[in-house]
Amino acid sequence: MTTAYSPAATGHTATGVRGCNRVVTAAHDDQSMSVELKILGNVEIATAGRIVTIRGVKPRQLLTALALSPNAVIPVDRLIDALWPKDPPRSVLENLRTYATALRQGFAAGSEPGPSLTTSTEGYRLEVDESKVDAYRFTRLLKSAREALERRELTAGAAELTEALALWRGRASEGLPRNSWLGNALDALDAHRTLAHEERAEVYLVLGRHIELVPELVRLVAEYPLRERLWRQLMLAHYRCGNMGAAVAVFTRVRTILTEELGVDPSEELTELYRSILRRDATLGHTSAPSAPRQIPMPDGSLFGREPELTRLRHLFAGARQGRIAVTISGAPGIGKSTLAQWAAHGAANHFPDGQLYVDFRSLGQPCDAAGLLAVANTLLCSLGFGQAADLATASAQWRGLLAGRRVLILLDNAVSADQVAPFLPAGHGCAVIVTSPQTLAIAGIGHHLDLGPLDRADSVEFLTSVIGVSRTGTDPNAVAQVAGLCGDSPAALQMAALRMVCRPDWTVAEWWQRLQSAPSLFDELRGGGRSLQATYITAFAELAMVDTEAAQALWRLAQQPPGTPVSPQVAGSWRGLETLADFHLLEAPAPGLFKLPRFVRELAAHSADHA
Fold first, then answer.
1. Is 186 exposed, middle or buried (0-12, 13-18, 19+ CB in 10 A)?
2. Mean pLDDT across the stretch 109-113?
3. In whole numbers, what is the pLDDT of the chain averaged over residues?
4. What is the rounded CA–CA span in Å between residue 579 and residue 417?
5. Distance of CA 5 to the CA centre of its chain
6. Of 327, 342, 379, 600, which residue is most buried, by most CB within 10 angstroms?
C-alpha cells in the first residue's frame, strides 16, 4: 500500500519546487510506534511500522540538516546555505516553510508523540528524542566503543562498534549533493564510518577473529580501494587463516591500484608486511590480546546456607561501575570465609573483565613488614604486566595508578591486620576488593562487612545429607541433627564429619554420633583426606600469637580452667586480651561483658598449653 502526500495539500505553494512528495510503504505491524529519523543511508522517517521516504532533494537536505543538530536552533541563513549554496530563489523563505510543513506531516504519522519542528525569529529547531536519530546513536556508540577500547575491554568495544555500524544502510543521506557545509558534515560522517570499520577490524585481528573478518574486508577494500589500512588488515587476515598466497595476491593488487590511480607505491608499512609474509615471520601469527589474569582458585567447598550472603555480595559487585566496592568477611576458624569469597568472586567475574587477582597472605607466611608487603605488591604489578617497584610506597602508588580506569576484582585472603590490606586498595571506580580475615578488621575505605556465624541447623543437616546420602541419613534424622550439633554447625567440621562417614560405609549415623559424643577429643575424629580440623585451629592460634602475644597468653590461661569456669578478665589476665580473642572469633561474646570459650578452642588451647 502506498500513499502520496503533496505540499499543495498543506495549503502552501512552492514556487520552483520540484517533487516534495513522500511515499509511505507498509511494513511490519509489530515495529515500534515511535518516530525515528534515519539519515545513515536514504533519508527516511520510520513511524508506526512504516517507512516514509521523502521525495525531492531539498526536503531531504532540510531534514538532514536538522537531524545533524537535534534540539538546537539552526539559523535560517545557515539552512539556506545548506540547501542553496549558490543563488537561492526569491521564494526561498516560502520554500523552507513548505518543506517544514511536509516534514511535520511525516512526523505526525505515528500514534505516539514524535519529533516536532518549531520556528522562531532565530531559525528552525527539531525537538526530538536524540536516541531516535540514527546519526546521534552512531556517534554515541562510537564514543562508547572507543572508551571501552581505551580500557582494554576489547570484546565490549568490538560489540559496540558492530552495533554502531549496523545502523548504516549506505552513504550518509544517500544521493544528496555535497557542495555546501551540509555536504562537508555528511563527508565527515562517512569518514567516521570508515574509521569504525578499520577500528573493528583491528580489534578482531587482536581477538583472533580473522576468519570471519576476511569476507568483510574483501567488501571494504572494493568500496574503499585507496585505504591502505584495510588492505593491510586483509593481508594479515589471509595470512593468519593459513592462506599465504591470497595475502601475497592482495599486496600485488593494491600496489597496482595505487600505481594506476595515484602514481605512488605502497607505504613502507604495507611493503614491510609483504616482506614479513614472504619470510613467514613468526611475529605475524595470531597474537591474542593480553589475557586478563584469572588467579582466584575455585572453591573447594559447598555453599550450603550462605545464599543470603552470596546474594548481597553479588548485588554489591554489580554496582562496581559506580564506585569502588570493598568488603571484609570475617568469622571463626573453618566457618567458610574463603569459600564464600571464592564463590562470590567467580560469580561476579563478568563484572571485572580486566582480571581477578588473588593473594593468600597465609600461604605467604603472613608478611607484615615493608619488605614482605613489597614482594606481594610486585607480584600483583607483574600480574598486570607492570615492572617491579623499589619500595612499598612507590609500588602502592603504581598499583593504584594501574587500576585507574580498569575493572579488576582483588581477593585478599586470610589477612590478619589492616596494615596488610591498606597498600592494595584501589582508589578509583570499577574495582572491587574482598578481604577475608579471622578478625573483624577496621580499614579506612572499606564500607561493607560480613561476619559469618555457624550455619542454621537445617542447612547443616542438608549438607550432611548431600554428602553421606539420604539412604543413610533418612533413617535417623535425629542422629544427623545431633552430629551437626557436635560439629558446632561449622562448615569445616561438618565436612570432616561427612567425609569420615563416606569412608566408613558400614557405620550408621547413630553409631557415628555416639562415637563423636564419647570421643576424648573431637579433633581425633574430625580428620581425613590429609586434612584435619585441628590443623585449622592450630593455624588460627599461630596467627593470633603473631598479631597479639598478650591475647594468645590469655587464651592459654583460660584453657587451663575447668569446664564451666566463667570467662573473666581476672582469669584471662586482661580485659583487652578478651576483646582481642572475641575479635578473632576465638571467644563467643553473646552479650556485652559476657564471654564463652567454644569447645574446639578450649580443647586445642589446653592441648597446646600442656605441650608448651
1. buried
2. 61
3. 84
4. 15
5. 50
6. 600
Collapsing DSSP to helix, strand or coil, 549 comes out as helix
Locate 47 and state its grid cell. Answer: 513511524
Q: Checking DSSP bridges between strand 448-452 and strand 325-331, what pairing results, if any?
A: parallel
Determine the Cα–Cα distance for residues 437 and 425; give it in Å rounded to an integer.
Answer: 15
544: which 3 cell numbers?
A: 593470633
From the centroid of its chain, how far is CA 119?
Answer: 45
Residue 371 identity (one-letter amino acid) = A
Residue 143, C-beta contacts closer than 8 angstroms, at least 6 positions apart: none
- Measured in degrees and rounded to the nearest 5, phi and psi for residue 474 equal -70, -20
Closest CA to 229 of 252, 260, 195, 258: 195
Collapsing DSSP to helix, strand or coil, 526 comes out as coil
How far apart, in whole angstroms, are the C-alpha atoms of residue 116 and residue 100? 10
C-alpha cell read off for 219:
567488501
Contact in structure between 190 and 172 (CB atoms under 8 Å)? yes
pTM of the full predicted structure?
0.56
Q: For residue 329, what are the β-bridge partners?
A: 436, 450
Tell me which of 107-116, 450-459, 532-541 is least confident: 107-116
The dihedrals phi and psi of 42, each to the nearest 5 degrees, come to -60, 140
Measured CA to CA, the distance from residue 57 to residue 40 in angstroms comes to 16
**pLDDT at 521 (0 to 100):** 85
> ∠ at Cα 599 (595, 604), nearest 5°?
110
Mean pLDDT (whole number) for 133-159:
88
pLDDT(117) > 80: yes
Between CA 24 and CA 6 the distance in angstroms is 12
Helix, coil or strand: residue 151: coil
3-class DSSP assignment, residue 8: helix
Counting every residue, how long is the chain?
612
Q: Residue 82: name the closest of 136, 124, 20, 129 by CA.
A: 124
- Note the maximum CA span of the chain: 111
DSSP E strands: which ranges in 538-593? 588-591
Rounded to an integer, what distance in angstroms lies between the CA atom of residue 59 and that of residue 96?
8
Residue 135 CB burial class (10 angstroms; 0-12, 13-18, ≥19):
buried
Predicted pLDDT of residue 241: 86
